[in-house]
Design a protein that fits this description.
The protein is α+β, with helices and mostly antiparallel strands. The protein has two domains: about 80 residues, Winged helix-like DNA-binding domain superfamily/Winged helix DNA-binding domain (Arc Repressor Mutant, subunit A); about 170 residues, Beta-Lactamase (2-Layer Sandwich), CATH 3.30.450. It is built from ten helices and eight strands. The strands form two sheets. A six-stranded antiparallel sheet has the order 5-4-3-8-7-6. Strand 1 and strand 2 form a beta hairpin.
């Protein structure tokens, strides 16, 4: 089953990163690779598993794991078996959220929007091939994946993602879609690049994107980009259940409110 907890982040290999200049610190990069080893983990990882996932030798992994364990960025798993991310990572997460200008300005706007629409309202940050959720205002129906800040989704098949891509020139948006793994998350996920680009073009015309059943079965979602000077910063999402809404009714009620909220966030930045 395709993972809907985390879309694969864009990034460079270690060799590619080193080619960016002499200022690149290899040891720091490898420490980040160790932390990134947990991105798709379903439980504690052994030292061998960390080495394999981080693509480093076991000796280097042992030294890095010991350092990160000592600093609190890793911890032992239950019964002392394996390793898990440590609590100090949450300190860094808090710093990102509290210091990000868009998150600061969007919080009261999303709270008010949530009271009005009484459906799930989210704010995500743009990361090219994916969006990373920074704020999540829950509705009455929730699953575990929908409650987590830091959960990420692909841009190609989500409402917020297509809205964000619609801000870009067509060739730039196509380049991002083309280098994205086009997984079918449901039976209705669109995986044709040309048809995805048609949906992005429609979002460019409408000022918002609509996705029905493509990422989460039984869900209709509207996404509005938050962008400045042609650069997407993130997106506002509102999602509802198809058991309670038709797509047409959801768009009629929610699209104007979501668009107004996104405009208010951008205007306050």
């Amino acid at each position: 089953m395709t993972n809907i907890m985390r879309a694969s982040p864009p990034g460079l290999s270690e060799n590619e990163a080193q080619e960016t200049g002499a200022l690149f610190v290899r040891a720091a990069g490898r420490a980040m690779q160790v932390l990134a080893a947990f991105h798709q983990a379903s439980g504690p990882l052994s030292l061998s598993e960390i080495a394999a996932r981080a693509d480093i030798d076991k000796s280097a992994a042992q030294r890095l794991v010991h350092t990160l364990l000592t600093l609190g960025y890793l911890r032992r798993g239950p019964d002392g078996r394996g390793y898990l991310p440590g609590i100090r990572i949450l300190d860094t997460t808090l710093d990102l959220l509290r210091l990000d200008p868009m998150v600061q300005k969007a919080t009261p706007v999303l709270l008010e929007l949530r009271k009005t629409v009484r459906e799930r309202v989210d704010l995500s940050l743009y990361d090219e091939t994916r969006l990373v959720y920074a704020l999540r205002m829950q509705s009455k129906r929730e699953t575990f994946y929908a409650t987590l800040v830091g959960h990420s989704v692909p841009t190609f098949c989500t409402a917020g993602g297509r809205a964000a891509l619609s801000v870009l020139p067509d060739d730039a948006a196509r380049a991002i879609v083309t280098r994205t793994p086009l997984h079918a998350y449901t039976s209705r996920t669109e995986t044709s690049v040309d048809r995805i680009m048609d949906e992005i073009a429609q979002a460019r015309v409408d000022g918002y994107a609509v996705v029905v059943d493509e990422f989460v079965q039984g869900e209709v979602a509207i996404g509005v980009a938050i962008a400045r000077d042609g650069v997407p910063l993130g997106a506002l999402h509102v999602a509802g259940s198809l058991a309670e809404w038709t797509p047409e009714d959801f768009v009629e009620k929610v699209a104007p409110l979501a668009t107004e909220a996104a405009r208010a966030i951008l205007g306050s930045l």
